[in-house]
Amino acid sequence: MAKSSIVGYPVIGENREWKRALESFWAQKTTEEELLQTTKEIRLANLQKQKEAGLDQIAVGDFTLYDRVLDTAVMFGIIPSRYQWTGGQVSNTTYFSMARGNDEAVASEMTKWFNTNYHYIVPEYEGQRFQLTENKPLLAYREAKKELGIEGKPVLLGPYTLLKLSKGYEDKDVPSIILQLIPLYQKVLQELQEEGVQWVQIDEPILCTSITSNEMKTVTEIYSQLTKDVDGLNILLQTYFDSVEHFEETIALPVAGIGLDFVHGGTKNLENLQTHGFPQEKILAAGIVDGRNIWRSDLHAKLSLLETIQQQVKLENLWIQPSCSLLHVPVTIRSEQKLDSTISNALAFADEKIKEIHVLQTALQSGKVSVVTEFEQSEAALTAFNKLPARNRQEIREATSGSILSDSKRNLPFADRKIKQQEKFQLPLLPTTTIGSFPQTPEVRRTRTKWRKGEITDQQYKDFVNAEIKEWIDIQEELGLDVLVHGEFERTDMVEYFGEKLDGFVFTEKAWVQSYGSRCVKPPIIYGDVAFTKPMTVEESVYAKSLTNHEVKGMLTGPVTILNWSFVRDDLSRDEVTNQIALALRKEIESLEAAGIHMIQVDEPALREGLPLKKSEWKHYLDWAVNAFRVATASVEDTTQIHTHMCYCDFNHFIEAISALDADVISIETSRSHGDLVESFNDYHYDKGIGLGVYDIHSPRVPAVEEMTEIINKGLEVLDPAQFWINPDCGLKTRKRKETVAALKHMVIATEQARERLGASAVK
Ligand code: GLN
Ligand code: ZN
């Protein structure tokens, strides 16, 4: 009998109950006890649904109060000293301080989870002695058993992935860190075994990245140690997001089962499976249903994939599961009432994916006949969807194959544009600016909702947005910022806003997914061919510009980010869809320019996260991603300054690609990585304008002038003051007005002081 299984399930609840519980606790509207009670109810409701769906293997311990990597770090006492933890159980106060910072200590760095839009908290190694503070998977297992009678499969993040995702150590420290970690993992596993747990899932997605053979040896060594004294416990080593880099070594690990992704990197995994076979005694947990996208499965194709896999594995040793944790997809399509039915019938979210798993299990077991209706329904839905005219627009297909794509170059090289632009803009040394958005107060959100519900007119809404723009233009002038922004009050989200105005997108009401902490995003769905219909940002930018003598940056989201933050049709290649978006944005940029906006920022915060896990595939991705940015931006005048912005960047790896974007100015996050980034400029001479984020916007904390000065000084060690811009790490929409103004004030003071110092040194 093949089994059905799941790698992980979304925490947030059908109506984001989880987010609200956390945020009301942080706002001190509810007590810790209430938080724990509400989140327990959510957790149990999630499990109950999986139980009712008939899953054989339900994941427990994947629930979190903030982030799963943070949970693992806390479980092993990997807690930086600045949070003043002195051992023993870790309080929620300490836990949330690590995630969000507190008055005394900055938050830990946050970065993207592999190539997804989920962010984890980076564990910081400071040479501390690890200790097991709490066996979280065990507690989760007990709870599910006691409350719901579920024989759960505890999940935990594996030691090698934990190590590789942590920072603060050098290569030479690795053996001693591993030596410290192994006994703690052993203890966790032993306790699970004593409890009578049958299966535990250990996630090692790092095995799908380009790790070396030597590293793979270390992994083998770790696992032979880990599994030494836990004979009765079955370990499933779970990988996802791509094919495993060292297939033979991975399947030979001394564990009872291996989880492989047969969707992302599926071709390679399958090829390897067919070439190398699979150990007869092991379980193969096959990731069959796409855990990262929202399309309904083509059940015929999935079943035939399973049949191919089954040639290598006995039926009773096969588990059928989604390709990864379902945390990357929304909870259920049941919540969507307004979508066109041809589209909604072609969608499957977490709950529907679990059903598909179940149908596939039955089909594999007892033949298609036993689930013939399910197969027919699915086939009919996908056929109708594929025939939609919006998915088959010839003129758009032709445009993306035309010469415009290869001919995407600015008229003059940067060095020449720079001179013309400086003549035009006359900016001071170290120009100050922000990344685009200003606080989206409850009032802003309320007013938008009213407008959407038709309770206020278009004009009333527009007047409201304009009043916000005016207020913040005044504030920016008063603060003394050099380049202003309109504040993005009209936007809920930087992708949704554009998607709603372009052809080819649809939007859901409640299809939220977790992005970081309690923050959820509702990615648009690119289901058809993308096209420009009418200007999207011109009115607001032009209005803002009419209020001031300063330059106002127009503000757009770039093609690669729109792609990476959407759920994208999977019948066209990602680069083709990106080029469709780029051509649409090019029209927007040309409209802005024609309307007198001469600085235009095209944000690409998600360029980095689209980077394939395997280094061998980077070049191809970067080539088309960079090209798409240029398709969108290259047609402007020499004196029009193109800005771009990225967050969470590990620039060392792709600074050349960033330079190839040929943007005149880039602003990037640096404050959370405490200036690590600037080192990359030692190795590579970056000639264009660059703004280093001088403070972290993810925390309500207002940093002191000195903290910003420190970051500015670090930057000035490696960058020419003439190319250096000063800005916060990212947009300010999640912050409150008071802290925003206070922090920007400090930023301007720090800049003025730095200018004085530079002036002084020039005189010397
Ligand atoms: N312009 C956007 C903003 O300020 C950029 C956001 C981002 O990088 N995520 O909100
Ligand atoms: Zn950003």
Describe the structure in your own words.
The model has no long low-confidence stretch (mean pLDDT 95). The protein is built from 27 helices and 22 strands. The protein has a domain at 428-502 and 532-758: TIM Barrel. The protein has 764 residues and is an alpha/beta fold. The longest helix has 27 residues, at 737-763. Helix 1 packs antiparallel against helix 2 (32-52) and helix 17 (442-452) runs antiparallel to helix 18. The structure holds glutamine and zinc ion. The site of glutamine has 13 residues, from loops.
What is the CA-CA span between the terminal residues? Answer: 82 Å
Shape by Cα distribution: globular
Q: Assign the structural class, choosing from mainly alpha, mainly beta, alpha/beta, alpha+beta, or little secondary structure.
A: alpha/beta
**Tally the helices: what do you get?**
27
Uncertain regions: pLDDT < 50 for 5+ in a row? none
Question: How much of the polypeptide forms β-strand, as a percent range?
Answer: 5-15%
From the coordinates shown, what is the CATH architecture of the domain at 428-502 and 532-758?
Alpha-Beta Barrel
According to DSSP, the number of beta strands is: 22
Radius of gyration: 26 Å
Helix content: 40-55%
Q: Report on the biggest sheet.
A: 8 strands, parallel
Spatial order of the strands in the main sheet? 1-10-9-8-7-6-5-2
List the main descriptive attributes of the protein structure presented here:
764 residues, alpha/beta, TIM Barrel, 8-stranded parallel beta sheet, 7-stranded parallel beta sheet, binds glutamine, binds zinc ion
List the helices and strands and how they pair.
Elements: E1 3-4, H1 17-26, H2 32-52, E2 59-60, H3 68-75, H4 92-100, E3 110-112, E4 119-121, H5 136-148, E5 153-157, H6 159-165, H7 174-195, E6 199-203, H8 213-226, E7 234-238, H9 247-251, E8 257-261, H10 266-276, E9 283-289, H11 299-310, E10 318-322, H12 341-344, H13 350-366, H14 372-386, H15 394-399, H16 414-425, H17 442-452, H18 458-479, E11 483-485, H19 496-499, E12 503-506, E13 513-516, E14 519-521, E15 525-531, H20 538-546, E16 551-557, H21 559-564, E17 567-568, H22 574-594, E18 599-603, H23 618-633, E19 641-646, H24 655-660, E20 665-668, H25 680-683, E21 689-693, H26 705-718, E22 724-727, H27 737-763
Parallel strand pairs: 1-10, 2-5, 5-6, 6-7, 7-8, 8-9, 9-10, 11-16, 15-17, 16-18, 18-19, 19-20, 20-21, 21-22
Antiparallel strand pairs: 3-4, 12-15, 13-14
Helix pairs in contact: 1-2, 11-13, 17-18, 22-23, 26-27
The protein binds glutamine (GLN) and zinc ion.
